[in-house]
Specification:
single chain, disordered N terminus, alpha/beta, 206 residues, 6-stranded parallel β-sheet
Length: 206
């Protein structure tokens, strides 16, 4: 997700190798380097990288190639991919085309077609300043029940979204055979999370 998802604003590790006036950051994906903009989050008084995975097709393709390589090396441990909406939707589809591994998108709102047994867990995003929820539909619960699930997201900052996703997988009866997979660590390297890129995205205090 482009949003920096956290349990609480004050829990965010404030670390940066860039000055507060920096406007962009180079990121490494495979053998390619991309320059992405840094954006201020006024509520948290920080500046973070704006990771656009909605229509930056070159970046999406580069990340999908690296993720596909990882998945093919661990294919026996993956039946289905689960990812929170919405920044990783296009990436999940690109990975599906390369690997054939189907994916499920968790939504932030309950849709009318999700069924009476849909389940949710709370998660808080710094960009909304209000608690949100992650939802999985009744149909998708059946798709991951008893299956080996790989959690995939764009970044991990404090792990709020990943923890919420783990809880949904557990409640839906899925199995986690691998650590969650993200494109980037943010702020610092996080134990128990696999990143595709060696670049740690900055979190710059303002």
């Amino acid at each position: 997700m482009c949003a920096l998802t956290i349990v609480g604003i004050t829990s965010l590790p404030l670390k940066a190798d860039l000055p507060s006036k920096a406007e962009s950051q180079d990121i490494k994906v495979g053998n390619q380097t991309f320059n992405i903009k840094l954006e201020s989050i006024s509520e948290a008084k920080i500046k973070i990288a704006y990771l656009n995975l909605k229509d930056n097709t070159i970046l999406i393709e580069a990340l999908a190639n690296e993720i596909a390589t990882y998945i093919k090396a661990n294919k026996e441990k993956i039946d289905v991919i689960i990812t929170p909406e919405a920044n990783t939707n296009a990436l999940a589809y690109a990975v599906f085309l390369k690997t054939g591994i189907k994916y499920i998108v968790l939504t932030k709102k309950r849709r009318p077609d999700m069924g009476p047994d849909a389940i949710s867990v709370p998660v808080k995003s710094i960009t909304t300043a209000q608690q949100q929820e992650l939802w999985i539909s009744e149909e998708n619960i059946q798709k991951i029940k008893g299956q080996k699930v790989l959690i995939m997201d764009d970044v991990v900052s404090t792990g709020g979204t990943l923890n919420a996703t783990k809880e949904l997988v557990k409640r839906a009866g899925g199995k986690l055979a691998l650590a969650p997979l993200v494109c980037f660590h943010e702020g610092e390297k996080h134990e128990g999370v696999q990143a595709i890129s060696p670049t740690i995205l900055p979190v710059i205090p303002l």
